[in-house]
Amino acid sequence: NLVCTGAEPLAITDCLNMGNPERPEVYYQLRECIRGMAAACRRLNTPVISGNVSLYNETKGRAVHPTPVVGMVGLIEDIDHHCTSGFKDEGDEVFLLGNLDDGGLAGSEYLEVIHGLVAGRPLIDLDQEKRVQRCCLSLVRNGTVKSAHDCSDGGLAVALAESCLMGSAGLQGGWTIKGRLDECLFGEAPSRILVSVAPNRVADVEKMAVWHKVGLTRLGVVRGKKLSIEGLFDLPLEELGIAWRHGLERALRGSS
Question: What is the pLDDT of residue 255?
């Protein structure tokens, strides 16, 4: 998130929310969360400057899902060179930094919401994560890209929708899907960032991706007021916006 704005990450703080650590499985979760964060911080050269824990979070002997929360601080050296997530101008090209086919449904919102499963073993290549972040930060700081948005909750399809909605600009897209459709659209694998760029700067993005050894896939062009992916769906931004902005309200109304 910081890198996508053009900020250099400086430090993190954490809050580890778990059940009863006297239970072996909960202690294991706590230990592995700490090990994972430590490994990432060493590789990304980002120190942990504070943190706390919230333990014994259980109801009727059933623990909450292990929930490590990370807060970060970063520095934008030149405020004139910062980035937002929304698409900007008609005709801009949209690319994905990172590997398109690394979707993976493990631990995804799609897997839980559609299939009722909280399962899987998400993986991360920290070397690749660092290369993708360095590439994106360079593109933002030198003014090459107009928008940058990480793929996270909901995967690629949701990230595209969010960039459309935050910029009030549609996307006419289409690309070759080699694996499973649901993995490509809704997988939440890390190390993937959406960027948009003016047509005359595409070559600069391609050069930077090669320099950092980062995958690059063209997804489409900013155009119109729809999120349209060839052969898959053609959705008006107005319809997407209602779902995006009022989802919680509708869910609460339905539960009552």
Answer: 57
Structural contact between residues 229 and 173, judged by C-beta atoms closer than 8 angstroms: yes
d(CA 106, CA 83): 30
Whole-number Å distance between alpha carbons of 220 and 173: 4
What is the reported pTM? Answer: 0.93
Strand 93-97 and strand 193-197: pairing?
A: antiparallel
User: In this structure, are residues 160 and 100 in contact, taking their beta carbons and an 8 Å threshold?
Assistant: no
β-pair partners for 154? none
Half-sphere exposure of 27 (CA within 13 A, CB side): 4
Mean pLDDT confidence for 175-190: 92
The span from the CA of 112 to the CA of 16, in Å, is 22
Average pLDDT estimate for 174-186:
91
What is the number of residues in the chain?
Answer: 256
pLDDT of residue 117: 94
The pLDDT of residue 134: 97
Nearest Cα to Cα of residue 133 among 195, 180, 181: 195
